[in-house]
Design a protein that fits this description.
Layout: E1 3-4, E2 13-19, H1 22-30, E3 38-44, E4 51-55, E5 58-62, H2 64-67, E6 70-74
Antiparallel strand pairs: 1-6, 2-3, 2-6, 3-4, 4-5
Length: about 80
């Protein structure tokens, strides 16, 4: 079942499946967010935006509007 990255909880490991918005797709791919990549949700800011994920061995901060465009699946 596919879910948006923005809906995930801290400590969850998920696999990137696809992207909703093609405009931000290239930006996210350049940052290492590739389909099939396993990521973990590390931190969520007190007001919920931004979130911190670990992808390809490094930490990346994403705004919620960016995280909403990433479809993930549980592993």
């Amino acid at each position: 079942m596919l879910k948006k990255l923005s809906d995930m909880k801290v400590g969850k490991f998920v696999r990137i499946n696809s992207f909703i918005d093609n405009d931000i797709f290239l930006k996210l791919m350049e940052m290492g967010c590739l389909p099939g990549e396993i990521i973990s949700i590390e931190k969520i800011a007190p007001l919920g935006d931004p979130i911190s994920i670990k992808v390809s061995g490094y930490f990346l901060s994403l705004r919620l509007n960016e995280a909403e465009t990433i479809l993930v699946e549980d592993i």
